[in-house]
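Handoff note, outgoing to incoming analyst
You'll be picking up this chain. Sequence as last confirmed:
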Amino acid sequence: MQSKDVSNALTYVSNKPDINVLKGAYDQTTNELEGYFDNCRNNYDDRRNFWPGKSRDLRKHGADAFPWEGASDMEAHTIDERITRLVSLFIASLNRANVRAYPVESSDTSRSKVVSSFLKWMTTSGYIPRFKQEMELGANYLLERGILITYVGWHREDRKFLQKLSLEQIALLDPVTAEMIMNEAETDMVVSQMQQAFNGLSTKRAKKAIKSLRKTGFAELPIVRRQIDCPNIKTLAPDGDFFFPTYVTDPQRAPYCFWRTYYTPQELENKVITDGWDADFVDYVIEHFRGVEIDSVEREQEGRRSISQNDDVYEAEELIELVHCYQRLIDEEDGSEGIYETIFHKSYTDGYAKFELLNGYEDYPVVVTKFSEDAKRLYDTTTVPDLLRGIQQQVKIERDSRIDRASIATLPPIMHPVGQTPTDWGPGRFIPYRRKDEIHFADAPDMEDVQASIEIERTLLEQANRIVGLDEDSQISGVRKQFLVNKFLQHTSEVLRMAYRCFQRFGPDNIFFRVTGVPDAQEFTKGDPDENFDIIINYDVLNTDPQTQEAKLKQMVDLMALDRNGRINVDNLLDVLAGSVDPILADAVMQPAEVAQDKVIKDVTDDLTKIHAGIEMPARPNGGQVALQLIQQYVQQPDIAQRLQTDQGFAARLDKYQQQYAFAQAQQINATQYGQYGTAAASVGDVQTQGMEQ
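Most recent structure output, in case you need it:
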């Protein structure tokens, strides 16, 4: 049972955190998760075919080698192949998926379209760094380790650089400081002024800079520059980076959670300047805790250990491990909740780097998804290795047995007269037997059993495909595959929703972004910070089949012939059809309907001006319907109507221009009818009743 002090520290806000309590909660959480960690290690090994005693030549060696020294010890990538295929399907679905924003409370559809375009730009332009890579890593974690955790925040980083500045440059930056230096005022006053002007400037460097400026007119001084200001998305390993208490069923209702991170000394020093971390704490941990214990670092192949932080790989001895603790705490005065962050070292309880309210956050800054919802608790989840471990082991047995059978059939043991005790068995071995004066090969195994082994393996692999939804011939497997894709895309949509919320809270008021088909960058105003959208990302896995996709596209086109009331939005349909064919090509050739219409209006207006001036103009290749409407409005103008009555040349030019658009429009309509009825298209000017009997 928790003491009252411990309970209060984990429930209510205080002036400063109790690091002893947080350390105790962290140790208890990680200790209770050892069972889950062990299963993740097993999954890691099974996927990558690691096992004790494995040799590089995939042969069995040593005293325990069975059935003989050098027997087959082949890898079977049953688990890895299916995880890789599913990850490829997830990422392909994400690349081809439609991203839509729907307002929760407002009916402003035009705003929804803009937000949808902005979200698409965020994921494809690099504005969210490594978005696709992080989601790919997350897909691997979801399938291999059963839990996908994605951190979503805002990354604002200022970095300090030494720069050689002249006295004149300093005067432009801070005239008061420059004047004090030039007037040779009292050194202590000048040092204090320099430290105010240049954040993080030490007293020693300040005195050195003042001396250099007075002597040479130049000095090396630290300049703080903003390097990064963008959404920050990180996939966190559920068995190495981010931890919840074992009893948690809903991660957002957890009283606390922990993020284990690793920093270089340079990064920690920079945090003092840019994020206000406690300088004494940073100095202490750098001096006493540099170097990471090997067991605390995610392992790699053959027992090597390394850590990735900020996408760079560092040697473990150069890293310092810190813990970010997130707590949902209550203010005792008014009962309001808040998400608080405490950054500490698990072996140092006399200080901390930072303790603050995460302003603007109503929930923990993570999105969490389980692979299998077959139990309530977060860590009670099934994984792909769990489902396929037995199959992979049996596939390996079948392959080893066939290789061993072929080896001993190719070179059977040689039987010779008894004289010594048999100590070995295998291909090409000499085996003593009791008949004297005769040497011959032992009987080879029956190779008829090989086909039976092949059939067993084929059956096992088919079963593996059915389990994970990769059996192409099964409707149930298709449903399973769509289910898994939806789970991944739902997670991604929540990540994007949180990223957009972070942009609303911390991003610039205005930002320019690119829209496909628009030559100039578009300005996006983030608007109301409380504006809320549901972000929907969907994709039909059947679209990966070319025949199915072609049939669906044809059905949509055929529906246009039945649309008598304009219920089908042709522009939206074109977007969908083009994206279904090839999203990359669609981005390259498609432009927004509004932009296309504006271009048609401008082109037709220019053409009419030239026709009015006596120049004959051909019709443009696109925009027939809009062009015809503009022409109809044009001829209804009183001055134009009057000139048509008196100027036959003008009337002929305008009529020809109009007829060309009418002809193109009729061809388009008849092409649709041809697709619907399978009859030849009518030509303009013919009096036909094509399709009317239908």
